[in-house]
C-alpha cells in the first residue's frame, strides 16, 4: 500500500520538472591552467625529433642486460602439523555435581565454568567456615587473589518466600 502512495508522489508533475531541468543553463567547466611544458614542446620541433629518435647506444646497453630468474624450491607441507596449537593448555575436569548436563566438561586451569562459579559461591554462602577462599583456590586450581575478589564482589541471589499473611500486608 505504501508503494502506491510513494509512486504517486514520484510521478507527480514529472514532465514539468524534467523540462525545467533540461532548460537550465549548463554549468561552465572551470578553466584549465595553461601548462608551460606542453607549450614549449609544441613550439620546438627539434625536441619532438629527439623524443622519437632511436638511440643506438641505449639499445646496446639494453641488449647487454641479462636477467635470470629462478623459483625457490617448493616445500611440501605436512597436513598434520597445520592444526596443532602453539601452546598446549592444561585442562581439568569440572566438578559439576547435579548440573552436569548444563555446562562444559573441561576447562583450562586457572579458570572456572559458570556453573562451577555459582556452585562455589553458593557453598561459600551456606558454609563459609568450610568453604574458605584457600580451599576454593586449591579445589578449583585458581589463584587466591582471584578467589578473594570473586567472593567479595559476587553474591548469588537468595530466594525468599513470604507467608500468605504477609503477602497481603506488602
UniProtKB/TrEMBL annotation:
GO biological process: mitochondrial respiratory chain complex I assembly
Start and end residues of each stretch annotated as Disordered: 19-45
Superkingdom in the source lineage: Eukaryota
Recorded GO CC terms: mitochondrion
Pfam family, one: UPF0240
InterPro entries named in the record: NDUFAF4
Coiled coil regions, renumbered to chain: none
Comp. bias (Basic and acidic residues): 19-28
Family: Belongs to the NDUFAF4 family.
Subunit structure: Binds calmodulin. Interacts with NDUFAF3.
UniProt-recorded name of the protein: NADH dehydrogenase [ubiquinone] 1 alpha subcomplex assembly factor 4
Source organism: Galbula dea
